[in-house]
Amino acid sequence: MATPGPVTPGASLEPSKAPVIEGFSPTLYSKPESFKEKFIRKVRENPMVPIGCLATATALGYGLYCFHKGHSRRSQLMMRTRIAAQGFTIAAVLVGLVVTSMKSRP
């Protein structure tokens, strides 16, 4: 079994800091983004995902409201609508991933 090479004293491993790799930049942006800036950027990149999430939450909320009021037929319709909205959201995420990967190719 081979012995490992010498350890350089300057290269300490600190779990609180990311390792430095030559020629690799972990972010394309020069300054760190705030939550609001990142959220706005992500919405602009793929606006269908937040629309799908909003539709899902709306259908769920209204469906639960109808269930509470005893409107079982409308509640069932809203739960089916919620499933369709979730499917739309997943499709939007997948399309966004494909588009982003196509953009990053040279």
Automatic annotation (TrEMBL):
One of its GO terms (biological process) is mitochondrial respirasome assembly. Keywords: Membrane, Transmembrane, Transmembrane helix. The keyword Transmembrane helix applies. InterPro entries: Hypoxia_induced_domain, RCF1. It is found in: Mitochondrion membrane. Residues 20-106 form the HIG1 domain. The chain crosses the membrane at residues 48-67, 83-102. The keyword Transmembrane applies. PROSITE patterns: HIG1. GO terms for cellular component: mitochondrial membrane. PANTHER family: HIG1 DOMAIN FAMILY MEMBER 2A, HYPOXIA-INDUCBILE GENE 1 HIG1 -RELATED. This is HIG1 domain-containing protein. It comes from Cebus imitator.
